[in-house]
């Protein structure tokens, strides 16, 4: 071969390697997952997803590529290509497969179709466009999933019963990574992770922005975990209109680190204990190094009291516990509360909460290394810890907390909690 041609080919291969970086290597720093993540062997073949173009549905093309490359291959969405998903896509049969999304995937905004055909979940009446599950699945590639949320948020204005799909649903996945992907304008939550274990999210960029200032991108939570264990969420940027991350019932061994959240409701445990007869557990959660801007809360824990159902003042009464939760390193930037812990969630009348203490215990909670300035909203207060009774709410500690309000105060509201060891400047109950 001519040396010039050889050099040309070599440069070509190098460029290809740069464009298609392959599966990213994920590192866990500074904190490590609760349990080591399982290794994922390299894949041996690739299958390109065909694009029909012109907004025509590609879900069958995606399924065919996945079936061809399942058990050891990589399915590729080519760069510079727009794919359309207009049919609910069940991908819970996956095993040892990579999904390399370099192009853009758009979901149709056919509200009538999705209302009838999205995957439905009993939990809070949620639904999704597609679901990924199985064993050992890696999704990456630098591409974009676009949920086209605007018409959904708009429809919600006139009909509160509209069931808006979650953009990215991981259901029943054992081992996997979702890395280096952009998620835009989800109709509802961006991510749900349910019935899963040993899954890592790394380097995601999510943004939900309404083009109409009178329409809010409602319920666009970054992540919600449910019935899942050993999950890592890290190194991501989220611009949204609800919880940045929320730990729902039976979330255990969860590490969240190095996030930039803007416009959210904070990093939240709950709400839990809403339903009488149900047992909710959130245990072993570490939240580390978070920049929280323009949010209602930084660190948040919300639990319902023991009020029996049917009563005029709402619901609650569920049991279970919230235990060993660490928020370490949070930079507060124009957030309403730096810390908001309540065991009286959903009840406006404090005497109701005194009368019916929560059946969910909150204990072993640590908030440490918080700095920054809140918004003026609750000035002079910057934090609130409202328990229903010290018997079911104890071992709560705040340390190295230098957050102040814009006028420089650091007062806190502390109710039914031992404030002598709490570490806040409790000036009111
Ligand atoms: C779910 O939908 C059912 C039936 O529409 C309704 O009764 C129930 O209140 C809903 N639950 C939640 C949590 O929204
Ligand atoms: C609101 O949306 C629900 C769910 O799609 C539907 O059943 C109901 O008919 C809609 N109501 C109106 C007034 O459009
Ligand atoms: C998860 O598993 C539970 C219990 O097996 C099941 O009831 C539920 O439908 C599954 N899916 C989700 C999304 O929770
Ligand atoms: C913005 O939303 C409001 C409320 O739904 C609606 O009345 C208005 O027409 C919308 N504006 C545009 C430009 O779509
Ligand atoms: C944060 O959100 C606000 C309001 O949506 C927006 O103006 C601002 O650009 C966002 N900041 C970043 C860094 O994304
Ligand atoms: C959570 O786990 C407890 C204890 O195993 C169980 O009783 C409860 O049903 C689970 N809750 C959910 C929502 O899966
Ligand atoms: C907070 O929101 C305002 C607009 O409401 C925006 O100008 C600012 O950039 C946001 N702060 C950050 C750090 O993104
Ligand atoms: C809360 O727990 C106590 C003791 O276990 C029980 O007597 C009470 O009925 C429970 N309350 C509710 C609302 O479930
Ligand atoms: C709070 O609830 C109690 C009943 O438990 C009632 O007597 C009282 O009037 C209520 N207070 C307010 C302000 O609603
Ligand atoms: C206190 O927290 C700040 C960040 O908020 C951190 O820079 C500093 O090192 C911490 N101090 C100690 C003694 O840990
Ligand atoms: C508590 O807040 C008050 C009012 O802002 C302030 O005067 C006092 O120094 C604070 N105490 C501590 C221990 O920070
Ligand atoms: C604890 O609360 C009481 C009553 O609200 C208050 O007088 C006291 O200063 C508080 N102690 C601390 C350490 O905040």
From TrEMBL:
InterPro entries: Glyco_hydro_28, PbH1, Pectin_lyas_fold, Pectin_lyase_fold/virulence
Signal peptide residues on this chain, from the entry's feature table: 1-21
Pfam families xref list: Glyco_hydro_28 (PF00295)
PROSITE patterns assigned: POLYGALACTURONASE
Biological process (GO), any one: pectin catabolic process
Record family assignment: Belongs to the glycosyl hydrolase 28 family.
Protein name (database record): galacturonan 1,4-alpha-galacturonidase
Native species: Rhizodiscina lignyota
